[in-house]
Amino acid sequence: MNYKFSKYNFFVEYKDIIICFNILNGSLFALNVNKYNYLIENYSDIKRIMEEDYSFFQSLLRLRFIIPMDLDEMDIINFRNKRDIFLDNSYNIVIMPTLDCNFKCWYCYETHNKEKMSTSTQKNILKFIEKQIDECKPPKINLRWFGGEPLLCFEKIIYPLSKEIKNICEEKEILFQNSITTNGYLFYNKDIDKYTDIKLNQFQITLDGDEKRHNKIRNVNGTPTFSRIVNNIKMLIDNIEGCKVVLRINYKNETLEDVKKILYNFSEKYKKSIVVDFQRIWQTSKERKPNNKALKQSVELCENNGFITYYEHFYLYKGFVCYLDKWNSFVFNYNGDVYKCTGRDFNNSNKVGVLLNDGTIKWDMAKLIKRYSRATFDNKMCRKCKLLPICLGPCSQKVFDNKPKTSHNICHKELLETSINNYIIRHYKKVISKNEEKNETA
Q1: Where in the sequence is the domain holding 34, given as residue range(s)?
Q2: Phi, psi torsion values for 52, nearest 5 degrees
Q3: What are phi and psi for residue 386, nearest 5 degrees?
Q4: Residues 96 and 67 in one domain
Q5: SS3 sequence, 187-230?
Q6: Which pLDDT tens digit goes with each residue over 174-185?
Q7: What digits encode the pLDDT tens for the residues 21-48?
Q8: How are strands ordered across the β-sheet holding 308-310?
Q9: Is 436 a member of any domain?
Q10: CA distance readout (Å), 272 to 19, 237, 261, 312
Q11: Does residue 59 belong to any structural domain of this protein?
Q12: Would you say the C-alpha torsion 144, 166, 139, 369 has a positive or negative sign?
């Protein structure tokens, strides 16, 4: 049999070793410099490696650094994409009870109004979920609340509707998860039992810098919000079993100077429940810096202090970019309009369907076909890119918005402020750390 090296092998120098990482299958190992030099010298002559060092060849083959000549790795990527987009039977139900908000952040893309979801629309959502459960028997319902500020509607919409959906899932023996994206200002200790009752235990909450910077951006008609939000995060973690908080830091370059002051607010007891997610404010995209040292230092500061972090667009083994790209993902606006993205304004041009009174959706088939007829990475630029397996190209919304033959305008590499080498080193260190923990407990 003839063999070739995988297209997706990466080699990164780290201290006195070379990290070897395949981003398609996740294989990871280290070589000393001499062994690495031997590998590179013979990279175009696999037969020589096989003859001179058969055990090394076998290891590379087992780790899929070497693959059969007739294996097309793009087939694997295409398969993962179709599998994860169309065959995942779990449902993601995003509900927008209102577009109203108590904050007025300068960078918000939404057009706010005071409307709230009607009782009839809530009933239609329940009918939709019941129909899907009866017809498709999903193993899990992921309920996600979004806005506007969804907590403005906690008593009249979030709590009662969540409870009904939870009860339906329990009756049908379907796993139910409940999460919310919120500014975190309107949580109250008196409602803890209600959060627990509806299994609301996953939260995305934003801070825009230290107290001084945050309060200039995220306030209620000038009233400071930082300390109240921080205290609310602590309250949730203290009182809700299994609580997880994604602490999103919306940053521009100067915001990264505040990270140490932000982390100072959370003692050791809270760290395991918080994931820090760095997201650049999109209006400051021109300020991006390749290999942004301040961002790298901020991430290292978080991790050195015991926090998990997100800040890259790299994900192993995934076949999709955004969970809303998946076929069984739905965004219901307060008025019953249906969308496939929460990162755009909720207007008619972005709408893909309407929820009807019988619990079915009347789709705009032209828009739906445009989204799902091709993979988001189905263009020359993405298919040639060595980062494709952990990037998967743009999301379906960006592809939908973009003009044909201009895929370079929405390339994820243009968004990156970190290098693939840095990602690999961080991944290697995490794997080594986990292995050391296992050995200590064995």
Answers
A1: 3-71
A2: -90, -30
A3: -75, -15
A4: no
A5: CCHHHHHHHHHCCEEEEEEEECCCHHHHHHHCCECCECCHHHHH
A6: 999 999 999 999
A7: 999 999 999 999 999 999 999 999 999 9
A8: 308-310, 274-280, 244-251, 200-207, 175-182, 140-145, 91-95, 329-332, 337-339, 353-355, 361-363
A9: no
A10: 28, 10, 18, 20
A11: yes
A12: negative
Q: Kindly report the backbone phi and psi dihedral angles of residue 117, in degrees, each rounded to the nearest multiple of 5, phi listed first.
A: -65, 130
419 within a domain of the structure (yes/no): no
Which residue pairs, CB below 8 angstroms and at least 24 apart, start in 427-436?
A: 427/21, 427/28, 428/12, 428/14, 428/19, 428/21, 428/28, 428/30, 431/28
Question: What is the model's pTM?
Answer: 0.93
Q: How confident is the model at residue 286, as a pLDDT?
A: 84
Closest by CA to 400, choosing from 374, 380, 361, 382, is: 374
Q: Which residue type sits at 157?
A: I
- Tokens linked to 9: 């092998």
Q: Do the domain assignments include residue 25?
A: yes
Listed as own residue / partner, the contacts of 403-412 with beta carbons closer than 8 Å and 24 or more positions apart are 407/379, 407/380, 407/381, 407/382, 408/381, 411/381, 411/382, 412/313, 412/387
Strands (E), 23-113: 28-32, 66-68, 91-95
**Tens digits of per-residue pLDDT, 265-316?**
999 999 999 999 999 998 998 888 888 999 999 999 999 999 989 877 788 9
